[in-house]
TrEMBL record:
Keywords: Secreted, Signal. Belongs to the IGFL family. It comes from the Eukaryota. InterPro entries: IGFL. Its main location: secreted. This is Insulin growth factor-like family member 1 isoform X2. It holds the Pfam family IGFL. It is found in: Secreted. The gene is LOC103544419. It comes from Equus przewalskii (Przewalski's horse). PANTHER family: INSULIN GROWTH FACTOR-LIKE FAMILY MEMBER 1, INSULIN GROWTH FACTOR-LIKE FAMILY MEMBER 3-RELATED.
């Protein structure tokens, strides 16, 4: 599910009201300066996950299946970049584990 933008009014102190941008992930609001929407869940910006023998930052990168016959591997690419594009200097090739 793609994040959707909203403006929330939240109390900041006894008398001050401040408008802050928030996004939604499913039916939950989150602050994009602290969290992101990953796999329909609100997660901290620093969250990592395994991608073969590599680790990737789920808010900024994605794990893509990559087949180098006869080996099957993974590639970590910048989030939003197509997994089907050729390898670029920014991509990380990761071996399968197991």
């Amino acid at each position: 599910m793609a994040p959707r933008g909203r403006i929330l009014v939240s109390p900041m102190g006894a008398h001050l009201m401040l408008c802050q941008p928030h996004l939604t992930c499913g039916d939950k609001f989150y602050d994009p300066l602290q969290h992101c929407c990953y796999d329909d869940a609100v997660v901290p910006l620093g969250r990592t996950q395994k991608c073969g023998n590599c680790t990737f930052r789920v808010c900024f990168e994605q794990c893509c299946f990559w087949s180098l016959r006869p080996l099957e591997s993974f590639v970590v690419k910048v989030k939003g970049q197509s997994c089907f594009l050729a390898l670029s200097p920014d991509d990380r090739l990761c071996r399968s584990v197991g």
